[in-house]
Design brief:
- The protein has about 450 residues and is α+β, with helices and mostly antiparallel strands.
- Helix content is about 30%, strand content about 35%.
- The chain has four helices and 24 strands.
- The longest helix is centred in the N-terminal third of the chain and has 48 residues, at about 100-150.
Amino acid sequence: MKPRIRQIGMALAAVVLIVASAAWYRSRSGNGDAVYQTAPVTRGDLLVTISATGTVEPEEVIDVGAQVAGQILSFGRDVDGRMVDYGSNVAAGTVLATIDDAVYTAEATSSRAQVQSAQAGLERAEADLEQFKAKLNQAERDWLRAQKIGPSQALSQASYDAYRSAYETAKANVAVGQAAILQARAGVVQARAGLSRAERNLGYCTIKSPVDGVIIDRRVNIGQTVVASLNAPSLFLIAKDLTRMQVWVAVNEADIGKIHPGQAVTFTVDAFPGVTFKGSVGKVRLNAAMTQNVVTYTVEIVTDNRDGRLLPYLTANVQFELQRVKDALQVPNAALRWYPRDDQIAPQYRESRAPATQTGSRKGGRRRPAAAGGNDSSHGRRAVLWIPDGAYVRPVAVHAGASDGTRTVVVGKGLDEGTAVVTGMQSGDAGAGDTRNPFAPQFPRRGRNSGQGPH
């Protein structure tokens, strides 16, 4: 009898355990204490953008260098009478700096002397030519008289030949004199060219501003020696016009196809929190750069800086405007990602399970939404929003359109401004109120939860 009583006791214990387990699971699956997180449908404008980071640059920058070597002796004065320095306003022709010109002054003096010497040589050659012409004239007359007399008792053959030779020599000397003049003239031109070069080098010792502008960088100090060899050393960096600035932005190759000249752009800089600057795309440079296998293109953005707030080389956080939707219904993106379990759906909607946009697979006791971007229509991809219906939720089919990464434009029947849509769940244990991610794994614990069944 005892073994039989023991078997009956064990069977009764098993039944009690099964009943208790069923009651526990039922309490876990109930919706009585489910608290849905909701957000209202709003109406307004939505802006779709591409984000990037760039640098504020002057629209036109002149790099002023030195074309001669020497020591910096002094700096000039700006339009306000102060010594040229960072931020100085300068006009075209303003002296920026002077270089020691002792060597170049000596070269110029030597070149002037060479010009004078060459000029004197030319004058002497011209005088020699006149002398050669006079001798030629005399020799020609003597030769004509000798020809009339001819070799005879009055004129020996030797004298006859001498007159002839003197005439031909005088004639050749004239040609030599003419060549000497040409050579002397070339010498004058060469000497003058040397003088021009020496004077130009001497002029290079005074560094002048080529344009009106603002000095944004001074790269030398008084006493410093600059050496001009193959490349001219840079002394000053002058921004020609700071009322118009550019923002150079590196845009990823995946987004460059959406950028075009004239496109509206907004950007902010850390120097002025809360201030939004406007601009437009001016140019897309074609020389791409690759950094760590990432290809980027530089986009030039033109912006107005007449108020002078934008300073060169500030970091800009840029938003390229791709699409602007006005006066449209919007929901948080979390509302499009959230999906309930079957037992959280209102009973009258369980037969259809969900609109045809949802997949029929089940995982962890819930259906998963269709892949984003599928089932496109004229209004965008098809999606589902869930609206609280007592202790349950009911579906509303919508078309999801443009998104700014936080909110998405939706169009659907029965959806109005102010309608509450579910974005998540809250726990109902003892009013704990802790927020739960519907896609995070849930683990069983003692007590009742918000209706999130075990996965």
